[in-house]
Protein 1
Amino acid sequence: MAYHNITVEIADYVALIRLNRPDALNALNSALLAELATALTEADANDKVRCIVITGSEKAFAAGADIKEMSEKSFVDVYGEDMFADSTDTILRIRKPIIAAVSGYALGGGAELAMACDFIICAENAKFGQPEINLGVIPGIGGTQRLTRFVGKSKAMEMTLTGRFMDAEEAERSGLVSRVVPTAKLLSEVMAVARKIAEKSQMAVLAGKEAVNRSYETTLREGLQFERRLFHALFATEDQKEGMAAFLEKREPQFRDR
Ligand code: CO8
């Protein structure tokens, strides 16, 4: 499919999806979100993809939902069409790991998109924020829920009610991002992480993602049971035999996703 608001490159079993509306700091309009949903779905189904990276430009991962597109809409419009629900829920159905590589602004829907990925690596120039309050609204693609789980109630509440931005150092300290890297090296560092994930047994990677995500959805007791059952299930794979044999034989494992 031809994309106009994103680009997609696949190499070394990693799909790199770049948000590409430079004139609007990658603001998320319905066309971009629909293309992103399609690209994610295609990458998930593509045997040549084992990990997905979403990134933006150096100046902006995404500066939020497109204010121009939203400004004239009524309640009947946005509630009636359930604005962005379909496209933004797609990310929840993707089974392969998705890394957000954030440089510059990740604001509003941009921060929410990054948080919907499996983890975030950011550049030193990154700025995260939920400035919707300045527009007379609140976050609408998970900001109040996911930011609170990442950084706790106090910071999430302050950011949601004041619109203040969080810089990269605070984002790492607060657990919003897994790490901060020099801005010029963001993509090379993230692609190295993605390639490392792509080398693992895909069965184990899918199970690991599923188990960590389950911790957001259930009680500790149920989550522990879910994890244990997946752990047991992986003993039905050839990759478990290969991984453990390779360790004992002091060699690199040759995983075959079986
Ligand atoms: N929407 C549309 N256009 C935007 C957006 C945006 N979110 N952000 C920036 N742009 C455009 C600007 O209008 C400008 O365009 P033009 O050159 O045609 O005037 C261009 O991008 C460059 O922007 P600036 O000149 O403002 O660049 P600066 O470097 O001066 O400032 C900022 C950068 C601080 C990022 C500034 O652009 C800004 O504050 N942007 C808006 C941030 C914001 O409020 N984001 C939240 C949007 S609301 C939202 O995300 C809700 C999500 C939930 C939806 C739920 C649906 C169910």
Protein 2
Amino acid sequence: GHQYANILTETKGRVAIITLNRPDALNALNSPLMKDLNDALRVYDADEGIGAIVVTGGEKAFAAGADIKEMQPLTFVDNYKKNFIGDWTGVTTIRKPILAAVNGFALGGGCELAMMCDIIYAGDRAVFGQPEIKLGVIPGAGGTQRLTKAIGKSKTMEQVLTGKFMNAEEAEKAGLVARVFPAASLLEEVLKVAKTIASYSLPSVLMAKEAVNKSFEVPLSEGLHFERRLFHSLFATEDQKEGMDAFQNKRKPQWKHQ
Ligand code: CAA
């Protein structure tokens, strides 16, 4: 496959694995890394052989945030002209499910990147936080918005205003992460989930993700309307006939569209 300087990529069946790979900087998310990540995500999103994508980091850090060395000299005008961090949202334009497998630190932009993914799984020693306040700034890649939607106002305010860290157990209890696994088996467990998702009919998987994400953008009545239209439209696929026929005949469905 394609070689990137700041990430590793591999595929296992219909699952793609992207590993953030700047271990010396605890996977600090500099611009070249974010470009590599966005490029790889776009390639897998377009790849007919891929049905789900796992994004992971190292044992010590998923990612310790945006790169502080890169940011320190930046000025307002630099940031404004380049729309600094704006391109990170490329992650949220990916249509296939992205699962974050977080071991170690997911801080600042690292936590924000995890929150741009569709499901977060954590190793039992993972640490989440938005410590930007300690650097004289605030979260800039969605921390104040996505964390509030994930864990509510009071817990988010505490994270963002104090910079304190949350461990994996707290993060699961708060609803930020779906499940916690022993650190050593995290990736294996997440790959099982990704394999399951990638085994389903792709149109229904894409629409499921699209519908859940819609709930963050529109009022309930609009979201329900959108959901029902998508639900209706899936009856135009062969896979709806196949899935329901397979259920009735107690056999495994053979999906046409993956
Ligand atoms: N940017 C650049 N380099 C980083 C980094 C970051 N965010 N986080 C860690 N590193 C580097 C360190 O500078 C160090 O490099 P050197 O060996 O060259 O000094 C190396 O990674 C190892 O880090 P530490 O020696 O600090 O490791 P530790 O185990 O003592 O501490 C840590 C680990 C608590 C995660 C600590 O590294 C830390 O606090 N990192 C910064 C966390 C942070 O503030 N993140 C938010 C960044 S701002 C942001 O993300 C903005 C946004 O919203 C988009």
